[in-house]
Amino acid sequence: MHHKQSLQNQTQFYFLRRSLIVAVLSVLLAPISQSVLAATVMQHQNLPVTTQQGSQNHPAIANQKTELPKIQLAILLDTSNSMDGLIDQTRNQLWQVVNEFSTARQNGVTPILEIALFEYGNDNNSQSAGFVRKLNQFTRELDAVSEGLFSLTTNGGSEYCGFAIKTAVNHLQWSQSNGDIKTIFIAGNEPFTQGPVSYQEAVKLASKSGISINTIHAGGYQQGIANGWQSGAILAGGDYMSIDAN
Prior knowledge:
Blueprint: H1 2-27, E1 32-33, H2 41-44, E2 49-51, E3 70-78, H3 87-102, E4 104-106, E5 112-120, E6 132-139, H4 142-151, H5 161-170, E7 181-188, H6 199-208, E8 212-218, H7 221-226, H8 229-235, E9 240-243
Parallel strand pairs: 3-5, 3-7, 7-8, 8-9
Antiparallel strand pairs: 1-9, 2-4, 5-6
Helix pairs in contact: 5-6
């Protein structure tokens, strides 16, 4: 009986997480070309997690302690020189993702939103760290995250997606609760397969911790598929998107 109940809880959490991701990404379908979610948005629109304007929490029952659900979102942005013409468009898109998550509701309750920020592929960062740099640990101070994101500049060209994902999984304090949503958004324009850490290894590590991975290829949709961006998302229960460079 306990196993059956646990399985039901896990299944319910999976659909809650998926419905939130779908709700967020469906808002982004207009500026992003050919998201693989386009055919599934309608299937999930009636699930209990929604995104809407406003931030009021559901009134707590008197004398009853309730633990607010949590959304943990790690942003990984490619800041190599190959992103020169796309970095502004990409980080604007990433910040739109943050804004959508900030208005998410679960059963009338506004979850706690925590954002972490990394850059990768920048030669100003340590080679021993895979050219990955963490700008901030999980924080609720969205203004500080925004300031860090829009202050990033490009340099160099060693874009190791697998290394960046593994770093985010291992160097952040991820929630241990199965009821919280944990996800990574990684954006870039070079092959997903580069670097000393395979993306398959990194994705497997994320999945073990209940972390989904959503990929944004800054470039052609089919090119992103050929370069592994779709595969990386699918393996970790996430979604693949591309940004139209035009």
